[in-house]
Structures are given as C-alpha cells and as structure tokens.
C-alpha cells in the first residue's frame, strides 16, 4: 500500500508555541494527524484564543472557513466543536477544538470575532442542539421551527422518529 | 416560520415575501424583504426547503457508498463534490493517488467548472432579461455533459471519482471529444462577451450593484469569485494545492470593483483559465498507466485479477459487504469549487462507517452575505445580487 509519511509541519509548531507564549492555559492539548494541527482549547478561553488567532500579527487567521460539531455519544464529553481557520496572508490552516459535555452543551459564540460565524453556529444549533452564548440570532436554519430534537446527534435514528408524525400545526398557521 | 418586525413611526415600509417559488431564486430560497418604496431596508433569507439530511445519511453508509450522496449536494458540480469527499477519505487513510488519475481528476473538475459557470451565466443573464445568452450557454454545456457521459456513463450524477482514483479508464476517442470542446470554447466565450460585456443594459444592471468591501467579505467567510472580485486572490488551487494543481500553469483572475459586473468578468476569465488547465492536463495524461492506487482492501481489485487470484476475490467481497475501516482521526480538505471554497470534514472512529461527514458548502456561507449586498439597493437589484453569488440550493440546504 502506498502511504504518505507522517510529518509535523514547521509552521504548526510556530503557531502552537506562539499561542503558548501568549497564554499557556489556552493550549490544553495539541493533536497532529495527517499534517493537520488541532489545538484543544478550554471552553472558557475559546473566544479569547480565537480573537488572538485573528488579531496577532504573527498568526493572522483572518478567515473562519468552517465550524462544525462531532457527536461521540456515548463517550463523555460527547460533543467536539471544530473551528477551521485559514490565514490568507500566510496560507496556513489551523483547527481549534472545544470539548462539550452532554449535560451542558454550550460555548461562547464567535460572532464578535468573525461575523461569518452566525450561520455556521445556527446550523450547529439546529442539527446538534449546541447553544452559543451571546449569539444574536440563535434560531433553527435548515429545519422547520417546530421540529423536535436535533437530528445529527448520534442517538437520533437515521430514519427519524416515525411513530411521532409532524403535526403540521405550523403549516396550518401560515396558510389561513 | 421566519417573520420580520417592520419599522414603526413615520417610516412607511412594506414587507415583501420573495420566493420560495420565485424563478430568480434558482431553486427554493425565500427572502423576506422590507421595502421603503423600492429601496430594500432589510432582508432576511429563509432556507431549508431542500434539506435532505445528506450528512446524516452518510453516517449510515460505508465510505464508498457515500460517494453517490455527494453528487446530489451541488448538482451543478457533482465531480467537485466527489473529489473533495474522496480527497478527505484518502487523507484519512493516508493513500497516495497515481499521477495519471490525479490529472484525469483535474481535467474533469475543470470541465465541470466551465459547465457550472455556463449554467450560471445563462441563468443570470435570463434573470436580467437577456434570453439568447441562456440558449447559447446551454448549447455549449451540452457538449461538456456529453464528455461526462463518455467517461462516467452519466451526464449529471457522475460518481466518477472514487476513493483511490477514478472509476473507469478514459473511453476510446476521449482526446478528440475534449479537443473539440477546447477548440470550440474560446470563440464561444467571445460570443457571450460580445452579447454582454459592453451591452448598455447589462452594464446598467450590474455595474456598481451589490458592492461588498474586501474586509466584510473575509469577515463573513465569503470565498470564490465573490471574494476574488473584491481584490483578494484567494484560490485553494494556488494556496493549498491538491491533485497536483501546483504542476499547472494558470492565473487567478481578480478585480477590485467588487460589484456584480466584476463577478461576471471574473467567471468569464475563469472559464478561459480552465481551458488552459484542461489543455495542460490532456498533455499530461498518458495513454498507459494506473487510474487507481494499489491498496488491497480499500480499492476494488481489477476484474481479471479477481478471476485468477483468491485474495483479490476476498478483498472484493469484503469491500462491498463490510467496507474498510480507517484509523480513528479526522481530516479536513478544501478545494476550489466553481462557487468557492468547498470543504469536506470526515471523522472516523475506526469503524467501516464514518462517524461524521460534513460539507463546508460555499453556497450556504456565501449566501450569508446577501443582506450586506442588497440593503440600500433597489428591488430589481436583488435579483442581480442573488444571481451573482451563484447559489445552488441543493448545496445550501444539503
């Protein structure tokens, strides 16, 4: 089998060292896998770390390209929020990760840092039920407003809860 | 159901419900527009009408089975979706793809980019009242779809790019067919430009309409032609090359006006650059060579081998019954789709089915900038602006 050899990119180390020098607590864990760097950040430090990644002249992660969640049910903490950052000036990538427990799935919203986080966080709220503190408009975005549950959670069946059909109340309300 | 609070007091505003069945929304997008006379005061997009839960369905399929679902995300660029998903799974597995297969992939996604831009140009022009461009664009697109049919057996939902390479050997006569498109396209693109670029109505409808500053565009995570029309040359093919794009010689067109006209010019220029890439890829694709990597247990074995070798038969059976299990971990890959940065995030827990598949859909994220483009503009400009960010609702809602 042809396999790509594992290697740790130099720039990733620079980013990690830079963040450590700023606040040693911000870097709880560093994961290197297939040339991708993941920095696990404590939940309460996420917004500050993200702002640092964006503002710091040596990092310049100016584009929040994606934010998504992974549910590792039944492992606790079950939720992992992954933020994928891109630095256009330095052409570099970084992933920030926050682990969230099933009993309190909430984390600070990143809208103050990147306004583009708005819909990304709404999507995660809609499909996973993660709450984003300080989000200005936390509504469902893909599913109807009267939908019950969060379908991308692992304990939600793929075919849905068939024995509980949609009542159609919302549809009736909107069509007089 | 999304509602809008209208302004009270002396300002007299009206709420207009645009869509979800409006033809210029290119699918089923609903926008609640608050209007003061004909000026847009606020706009709230309402989406989800095409949500089919593709990401959830992927979790219940093996890694290979999920490829057919990716076709249906952005139905104007199925090959791009196949590519980004396969690149992510290949990264997870640590597979290296033969050069010949990489060049075939590049050629196919560049043909796809042209066909997607043709649909965009045709529909955008028809939205703004230029009927004939639409017919010309679809005429040329048909020629490209014929090539896809030759290669994959399908015009639209190709599923041609597979984990470890491509599905089939290029068919007999493919060089002539692609050569015909290469020969035909430059003069046809000139033809569209003759019809539109210096057309006074076209200029009046698009110049100075839908401005977004480069700072706002980056802050709102906008990518693709919209970002490049604002002056930033951010293109994944140059920044994070995949499939040997670093071996190709092409330019990334940029402009600074950041209006609908600039985005039109960018896409037209991109079609010409794609032709350059296809020409180079054709030269690089040799007549002989592997189209799949040699990875037993992941890539299905050749038919002949299955009839002579016991192991090949066992692997074939295992791939199609149980699938394969990548090591636990995550991979995130981004490519430049016709609409912007298309990303795929795949997480494995070591089982034959993915723990999570997520698509970073450029249409969805670019659509977020729509209120920024249209607030303060006139109602007819809304149609120009929706067209110009080039959304595909299948991708927005997934």
The percent of residues in helical segments of chain A reads: 10-25%
Based on CA inertia axes, which overall geometry of chain A fits? globular
Secondary-structure element pattern of chain A, one letter each? HEEHEEEEHEH
Low-confidence stretches of chain B: none
What's the number of helices of chain B? 17
In helices, the fraction of residues of chain B equals 40-55%
**Largest interface chains and counts:** A-B, 47 and 51 residues
Largest sheet of chain A: 5 strands, mixed
Please give the number of β-strands of chain B: 8
- Number of DSSP E strands of chain A: 7
What gross morphology of chain B would you assign? globular
Using only C-alpha atoms, the radius of gyration of chain B works out to 22 Å
Strand content of chain B: 5-15%
Strand content of chain A: 15-25%
Poorly predicted regions of chain A:
1-8
Q: Could you give the order of the helices and strands of chain B? A: EEEHHHHHEEHHHHHHHHEEEHHHH
């Amino acid at each position: 089998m042809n396999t790509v050899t594992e290697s740790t990119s130099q720039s990733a180390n620079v980013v990690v060292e830079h963040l450590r020098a700023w606040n040693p607590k911000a870097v709880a864990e560093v994961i290197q896998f297939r040339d991708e760097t993941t920095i696990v950040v404590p939940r309460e430090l996420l917004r500050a770390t993200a702002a640092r990644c964006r503002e710091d002249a040596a990092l310049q992660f100016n584009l929040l390209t994606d934010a998504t969640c992974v549910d590792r049910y039944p492992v606790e903490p079950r939720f992992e929020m992954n933020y994928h950052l891109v630095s256009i000036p330095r052409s570099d990538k970084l992933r920030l990760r926050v682990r969230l427990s099933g009993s309190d799935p909430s984390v600070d919203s990143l809208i103050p840092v990147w306004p583009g986080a708005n819909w990304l966080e709404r999507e995660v709220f809609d499909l996973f039920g993660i709450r984003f503190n300080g989000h200005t408009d936390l509504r469902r975005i893909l599913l109807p407003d009267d939908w019950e549950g969060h379908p991308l959670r692992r304990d939600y069946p793929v075919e849905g809860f068939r024995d509980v059909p949609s009542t159609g109340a919302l549809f009736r309300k909107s069509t007089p | 159901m999304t509602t809008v609070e209208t302004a009270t007091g002396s300002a007299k505003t009206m709420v207009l419900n645009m869509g979800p069945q409006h033809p210029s929304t290119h699918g089923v997008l609903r926008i609640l527009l608050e209007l003061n006379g004909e000026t847009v005061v606020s706009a709230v997009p309402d989406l989800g009408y095409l949500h089919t839960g593709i990401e959830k369905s992927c979790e219940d399929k093996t890694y290979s089975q999920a490829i057919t679902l990716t076709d249906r995300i952005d139905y104007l660029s199925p090959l791009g979706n196949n590519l980004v998903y396969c690149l992510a799974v290949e990264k997870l597995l640590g597979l290296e793809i033969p050069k010949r297969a990489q060049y075939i992939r590049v050629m196919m996604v560049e043909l796809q980019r042209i066909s997607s831009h043709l649909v965009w140009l045709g529909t955008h022009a028809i939205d703004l009242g230029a009927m004939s461009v639409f017919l010309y664009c679809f005429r040329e697109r048909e020629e490209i779809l014929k090539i896809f049919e030759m290669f994959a057996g399908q015009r639209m939902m190709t599923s041609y790019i597979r984990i470890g390479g491509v599905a089939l050997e290029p068919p007999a006569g493919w060089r002539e067919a692609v050569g015909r498109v290469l020969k035909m396209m430059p003069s046809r693109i000139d033809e569209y430009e003759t019809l539109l670029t210096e057309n006074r109505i076209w200029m009046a409808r698009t110049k100075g309409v839908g401005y977004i500053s480069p700072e706002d565009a980056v802050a709102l995570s906008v990518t693709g032609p919209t970002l490049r029309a604002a002056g930033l040359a951010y293109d994944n093919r140059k920044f994070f090359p995949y499939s040997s794009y670093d071996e190709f010689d092409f330019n990334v067109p940029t402009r600074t006006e950041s209006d609908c006209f600039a985005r039109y010019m960018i896409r037209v220029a991109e079609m010409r650059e794609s032709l350059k890439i296809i020409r180079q890829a054709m030269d690089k694709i040799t007549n002989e060579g592997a189209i799949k990597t040699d990875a037993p247990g992941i890539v299905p074995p050749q038919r002949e081998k299955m009839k002579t070798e016991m192991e090949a038969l066992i692997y074939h059976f295992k791939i199609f019954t149980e699938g394969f299990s990548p090591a636990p971990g995550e991979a995130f890959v981004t490519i430049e789709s016709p609409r912007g940065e298309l990303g795929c995030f795949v997480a494995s827990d070591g089982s034959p089915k993915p723990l999570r598949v997520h698509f970073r859909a450029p249409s969805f994220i670019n659509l977020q900038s729509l209120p920024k483009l249209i607030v303060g503009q006139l109602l007819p400009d809304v149609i120009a602006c929706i067209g110009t960010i080039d959304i595909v609702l299948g991708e927005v809602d997934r």
